[in-house]
Amino acid sequence: MGRAPCCSKVGLHRGPWTPREDTLLTKYIEAHGEGHWRSMPKKAGLLRCGKSCRLRWMNYLRPDIKRGNITPDEDDLIVRLHSLLGNRWSLIAGRLPGRTDNEIKNYWNTHLSKKLRSQGTDPSTHKKLSEPVVKENKRRKNQKTKNNMNKKEMVVKNKNKTGQHVEPLKPKVHLPKPTRVTSFLSLQRNDSFTSSTTTTTTTTSSQDLKAGGGGAFGFNENDQVLVNTRANGVVFCVGDDQDQDQDQVPNSADDHDHTLENIYEEYLQALLKTDHHHDHQNQLELDSFAESLLI
DNA sequence: AATAAACTCAACCGCCAAGCC
DNA sequence: CGGCTTGGCGGTTGAGTTTAT
Fold first, then answer.
1. What pLDDT, on a 0 to 100 scale, did the predictor assign at position A25?
2. B12 C1' – A269 CA distance, angstroms?
3. pLDDT digits over A220-278, tens only?
4. A218 Cβ nearer than 7 Å to chain C strand
5. SS (H, E, C) chain A
6. For residue A228, what are the β-bridge partners?
7. What is the pLDDT of residues A48-67, one digit of tens each?
């Protein structure tokens, strides 16, 4: 088994995308829709592997993507969702309209994990650290004097003898493995560009919906997700009618704020439900909730 | 102003599950 | 049933940029 990395073909471009490549990819998807990534580059006249095209489209070129300026609300939501879901960036991204998993992952790694640490919270477990970590800017000052390594040396330092990356002193948190869900929605996906712009539903979001991932955080007596909502570019279905014809494009900041509020409210409901239990029970419920999103 | 350190984020890598044949 | 392809995900890298000294 096994297969060669998809970018191993000789002659394929790698690295940063040029405006011309972006245009070619965008125009092709406008004309033919997403999907068939493997054959797309050739048809679009791109010397890129399909994987690279998909990544570029999903993380950068998609018309519904918001860039930068993560709001305090979004910031807070990411932290809370991460405490519930762990590093399941695609699930978290599915609840933040216009945000990509890559962007959230980067934002987490560069901002939020530091922020939490500085607040005395372990970013991977969301539990209180014994003592708050010294402020980042202080560390930055201090490191200058004690650390003469350049960046490459630092990278090497974090690798073991076999070249594998070794995370220093960072306990691995084992979370339930995300379950990949069958993609009947993906199959139903309308591949036209119109669809992708009006539904603004990414493949991830579609999967998330099926995984419960796009759903609201409501429970029935069996701790199962009750309601899915669908609005503002992510998969949210109002009520139990997951009518995709009701898809909406984010039209205003107000709409967006309301969606965030809804998400937040739903999330709080989920958390409040578990707040009445002991920690262990809490964890079990959160785990089962996380699982319920994925099954 | 020059230099080094730190930071950011787009892109790549490797793995895995689903689907197809 | 098993091998192969495809799409998707999370982790990691490193070039470019910003900040501190």
1. 92
2. 39
3. 333 333 333 333 333 333 233 333 333 333 344 455 556 565 665 665 565 445 444 44
4. no
5. CCCCCCCCCCCCCCCCCCHHHHHHHHHHHHHHCCCCCCCHHHHHCCCCCHHHHHHHHHHHHCCCCCCCCCCHHHHHHHHHHHHHHCCCHHHHHCCCCCCCHHHHHHHHHHHHHHHHHHCCECCCCCCECCCCCCCHHHHHHHHHHHCCCCHHHHHHHCECCCCCECCCCCCCCCCCCCCCCCCHHHHHCCCCHHHHHHCCCCHHHHHHHHCCCCECCCECCCCCECCECCECCECCCCCCCCCHHHCCCCCCHHHHHHHHHHHHHHHHHHHHHHHCCCHHHHHHHHHHHHHHHHC
6. A215
7. 888 899 999 988 898 888 87
d(CA A176, CA A280): 16
Domain A72-157 has CATH 1.10.10.60: yes
Strand C-proximal residues of A, range 134-173, CB below 7 A, are 137, 140-141, 144, 151-152, 155, 158-159, 165, 167
Instruction: Answer for A182: CB within 7 Å of strand B.
Output: yes
Q: Is the CB of A111 under 7 A from strand B?
A: yes
A95: CB within 7 A of chain C nucleic strand: no
Which structure tokens are listed for A91?
A: 């699930």
Residue boundaries of the structural domains of chain A: 19-61, 72-157, 184-294
Place of tokens 């139990």: A240
- Measured from Cα to the C1' atom, the residue closest to B13 is A5
- Checking each nucleotide's C1' against the CA of A139, the nearest proves to be B6
A208, two tokens: 């998330």
d(C-alpha A211, C-alpha A232), whole Å = 19
